Amino acid sequence: MTINKYDLTGKTALVTGGSRGIGKFIALELAKAGANVAFTYTRSEEAAAQVRQDIALAGAEAIALQADAANSEQAVDVVSRVQKEFSTIDILVNNAGITRDTLLMRMTEEQWDHVVNTNLKSVFNYSKACIRTMMSARSGSIINISSVVGIAGNAGQTNYAASKAGIIGFSKSLAREVASRSIRVNVVAPGYIQTEMTAGLDEKILRSITDQIPLRRAGLPGDVAACVLFLASDASSYVTGSVLSVDGGMAM
Ligand code: NDP
Prior knowledge:
Elements: E1 12-15, H1 21-32, E2 36-41, H2 45-57, E3 62-66, H3 72-86, E4 91-94, H4 109-137, E5 140-145, H5 148-152, H6 158-178, E6 183-190, H7 203-211, H8 221-232, E7 243-246
NADPH dihydro-nicotinamide-adenine-dinucleotide phosphate binds at residues 16-23, 40-44, 68-70, 95-98, 118, 145, 147, 190, 192-193, 195-198.
């Protein structure tokens, strides 16, 4: 009998920002692999209800929780509700993220704080809230969604790039702290992926981005979700502290 190393039956995954875009595809991919999935969102209530239904159709259990990822008290509450419902958390995907792009000259302190708190402090909030459970279980997989911008930088995104580069340093440090307990911490760094976050870009900018991608196409949320499944599952049991670029070759 062959063992399916991607099988997540009996596992519980928590995905922040799972109502739309990449997070939605991650939630569904993990559910299709057999995991029970809890996910958070802030505003998109209808979309969250739809994702819950889609997960149920995939044969998994789902809970959707409204919580601001930047809020540490809400993170503790979310994690305890997920534990109450599913009794464990085996996989944490820190996906929630926003942009507030502008040149540094014009960037307000509010724009800086909002992006850094939502994208980076959230990773601290949820990792901290989950780590004790994973330590006692002596297993776990944390996957943090960074960006090609955190590796290469991008004009107009000092706040976003700082938050995404911060995620990489955070993840490598935590990977070293918890490896002896068989907890793995990895980063996925998407390039240009077609979601609502990137939908506002104009044709010209879009074409110039695609021209810089060796695989000559924009990425799809499913391209990222497939890599998250790999890092969540036993297929990657010897992988920790790594940064997996999912960018069509953009930042090699
Ligand atoms: P979207 O804007 O399409 O979706 C973002 C998701 O996060 C939504 O479910 C949104 O739900 C949720 N969210 C936003 N703010 C919060 C918050 N404060 N607390 C909890 N949930 C929140 O973004 P993408 O899917 O494009 O991006 C997902 C991740 O991938 C982000 O971390 C992003 O930085 C990263 N990324 C995206 C790239 C791309 O090209 N799209 C490229 C590289 C990285 P709601 O609105 O209801 O809160």
